[in-house]
Every structure is written in structure tokens, then in C-alpha cells.
């Protein structure tokens, strides 16, 4: 199967881009158009490493492909720098939604950390308001272009700071105004979810859903803390749950696997894994298994019945799209249209929406794939 220059491919006569998709793990500051970065940087007299959009895109891709989450995260210094004004935040959010819609996404959740956007005097309330304004503008623009999309905010706290309870309260305040869930992000190793137990206790008392970055730069203890301390309904990445699987034998396509207690719990409780194939390679999250996509435990987890979903993590840094991620998986693991539909149905079922709205989303996906 050939993947074209835009990351698209044809599977069973259908363009993957044309298929309805759900995006659960997508960072706002990781999905800024390079051209927009250059324009916004010029407005605030910020120096950028490249003044051509294509060359800047290359710069992000090169810097992000380090095999280290810590190094990968350094590239966000540039994107967050141009997201410190109301106008910048609104524009980035609007274009973010437009890009999702162009990629065939019909429901998305965008995660971002308001505390990182206060450098030019805006308040937490003002930055959330600016992003929500941009999301709604993007939804309206998509509708005018004949594309239906809905996007909710995942209000995120940085795990290496001490503002998580404050950010949790902010998320709950915005529950009826665009916020659908909460997350913690940033350097995972050394900053377990247990350090933010007060925030998670508050969210639980408010019945507000959480997804927690875990099992990316840290292993099983991080996942365990996400589930116990964070009451996570989904695992942000969670790929290192495969460390709790012991492959006893392989005979052709038959694999005998012994489950650890944690892996069995995640699989049997159908706790969704927000897997991001390209990003997982770039950050070294799958280094224990290899450094190519075929080494990624994605297929093992899928075949064993885990609730796997496919995500981009950071479109700018990984120079990717949800269409491209799906095309790469098809190319690597020979997946069929039914497999891609299963990934989208998993994501729809995991969305932080009321049951009735999840059921509607599932119907839209099933209808779209059937057509």
C-alpha cells in the first residue's frame, strides 16, 4: 500500500482520510501550523529557528526524533511562546479544529495546559475562554465547509508544578462550557499521579472524568498510580502496559501470553489505551521492544483484546495526522477496513460524552464505514 505525500492511502477502494474518525489524544500546543508559528512570532518579535514554513516543519521533526520524552518536550517552548495572547490562542484553536475536520475527524478532544499560557498577563479563565472561542469558530467553519465536527477541551495540569488542584477546579467550572475531562501532562518519570492526589480526589467528588498520561516515559508503577490515585478512565499512551505481558511462545500467528495482574485488569476492564504510534517511537516509549513501527506492541495489545485507540499526540512534532497514523498501521500490520473501524469504535466508546451521545457517535462511525 502506498502512502501519498499527504499521509493518505487507499484501503479496499476507500481513502483513509475520508473515513469518520475520533481523536482522543491530541495536544493543542503540539498541533500548531508552522506558518502560523512564524506569523504569530513576528507579531511579538520572537525569533524562530526557521522563517520558512516547510523548513520549520523539518526543524520540529528533527528535534522531536530524539528517543527521549524530555528532549521531545523542549520543542514546545516555541509553540507555547506564540500562544500567550488571546488572539494567538483563539487562532491556534480555530485552525486546530479546521485541521481535524480536514482529516476526517468527527469528534475530538483537545488537551492543553492553561497554566502555560499566562506569560502576557492573561488569567486562567481568560485563556480557557480564548481557546473555547477558537474551537467554536473552527466548528462553525467546518460546518460551512460541509463537515460536522465536535471538539471538547481536556483541561490539563502540568505534573511537575503544584497547581493541579487549582486547574482541576478550573476544569469543573468549565464543565458546561466546553470542558469534558482532565489530564496531567509533562515529564512523567519522577512525577507520579500520586503527587496530585488532592486534585484527583476533588475531581472524583465532582464525578468529572480523567485521563492520565502514564506508561510512556515511566512504566508499570506510573500506570498503577494513574488508575489508583488518578482514577483514570483512560490511559494517556499506556503503551508500557506491555511490560506486564510475558510472551511465552510464538507459533505462526498464535501467541501464548502470560498476563500480569495490572495488564489483566486494564484488558478485562476495557480501560482504553490512547496509543500514538509515531510519537511513541520518537519519545522512546517503545524502546524496550525496538525502534521501528513493526516493533511497537500495538498489534500485540490489539490481538490480546485491549481497548486500543489510535492518536497523533502532537501533529506538528511528529509531522503526522490521524490519517497517516492509520495508514502506517495498515502498511505495517496489514490491517483491514474492519480493523480501522474497530479502532474508531473503541475511541467513540471511550469519549468523555454522555452515553446517548457516544451511541450517536458509534452510529455515525458505523454508517460512515459501511458507506
From TrEMBL:
Gene3D superfamilies for the chain: Metal-dependent hydrolases
Organism: Microbacterium marmarense
Protein family membership: Belongs to the metallo-dependent hydrolases superfamily. Adenosine and AMP deaminases family.
Family matches, as Pfam families: A_deaminase
Cofactor(s) the protein needs: Zn(2+)
One GO MF term: hydrolase activity
Keyword match Hydrolase: yes
Name of the protein: adenosine deaminase
Keyword tags: Hydrolase, Metal-binding, Zinc
Amino acid at each position: 500500500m502506498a502512502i501519498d505525500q499527504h499521509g493518505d492511502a487507499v484501503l479496499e477502494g476507500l481513502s483513509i482520510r475520508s473515513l469518520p474518525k475520533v481523536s482522543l489524544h491530541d495536544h493543542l500546543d503540539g498541533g500548531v501550523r508552522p506558518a502560523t508559528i512564524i506569523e504569530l512570532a513576528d507579531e511579538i518579535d520572537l525569533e524562530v529557528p526557521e522563517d520558512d514554513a516547510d523548513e520549520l516543519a523539518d526543524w520540529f521533526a528533527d528535534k522531536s526524533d530524539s528517543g527521549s520524552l524530555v528532549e521531545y518536550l523542549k520543542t514546545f517552548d516555541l509553540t507555547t511562546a506564540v500562544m500567550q495572547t488571546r488572539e494567538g490562542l483563539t487562532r491556534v484553536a480555530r485552525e486546530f479544529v479546521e485541521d481535524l475536520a480536514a482529516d476526517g475527524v468527527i469528534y475530538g478532544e483537545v488537551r492543553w495546559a492553561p497554566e502555560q499560557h499566562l506569560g502576557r498577563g492573561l488569567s486562567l479563565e481568560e485563556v480557557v475562554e480564548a481557546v473555547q472561542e477558537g474551537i467554536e469558530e473552527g466548528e462553525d467553519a467546518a460546518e460551512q465547509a460541509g463537515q460536522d465536527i465536535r471538539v471538547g477541551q481536556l483541561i490539563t495540569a502540568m505534573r511537575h508544578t503544584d497547581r493541579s488542584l487549582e486547574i482541576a477546579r478550573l476544569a469543573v467550572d468549565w464543565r458546561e462550557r466546553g470542558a469534558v475531562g482532565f489530564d496531567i501532562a509533562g515529564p512523567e518519570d519522577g512525577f507520579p499521579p500520586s503527587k496530585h492526589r488532592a486534585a484527583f480526589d476533588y475531581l472524583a467528588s465532582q464525578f468529572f472524568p480523567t485521563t492520565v498520561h502514564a506508561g510512556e516515559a515511566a512504566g508499570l508503577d506510573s500506570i498503577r498510580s494513574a488508575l489508583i490515585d488518578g482514577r483514570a478512565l483512560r490511559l494517556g499512551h499506556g503503551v508500557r502496559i506491555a511490560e506486564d505481558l510475558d510472551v511465552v511462545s510464538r507459533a505462526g500467528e498464535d501467541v501464548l501470553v502470560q498476563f500480569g495482574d495490572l495488564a489483566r485488569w486494564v484488558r478485562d476492564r476495557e480501560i482504553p489505551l490512547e496509543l500514538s504510534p509515531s510519537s511513541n517511537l520518537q519519545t522512546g516509549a517503545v524502546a524496550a521492544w525496538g525502534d521501528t513501527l513493526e516493533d511497537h506492541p500495538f498489534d500485540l495489545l490489539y490481538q490480546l483484546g485491549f481497548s486500543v485507540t489510535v492518536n497523533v499526540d502532537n501533529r506538528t512534532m511528529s509531522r503526522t495526522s490521524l490519517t497517516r497514523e492509520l495508514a502506517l498501521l495498515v502498511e505495517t500490520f496489514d490491517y483491514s477496513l474492519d480493523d480501522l473501524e474497530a479502532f474508531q469504535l473503541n475511541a467513540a466508546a471511550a469519549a468523555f460524552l454522555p452515553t446517548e451521545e457516544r451511541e450517536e457517535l458509534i452510529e455515525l462511525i458505523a454508517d460512515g464505514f459501511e458507506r
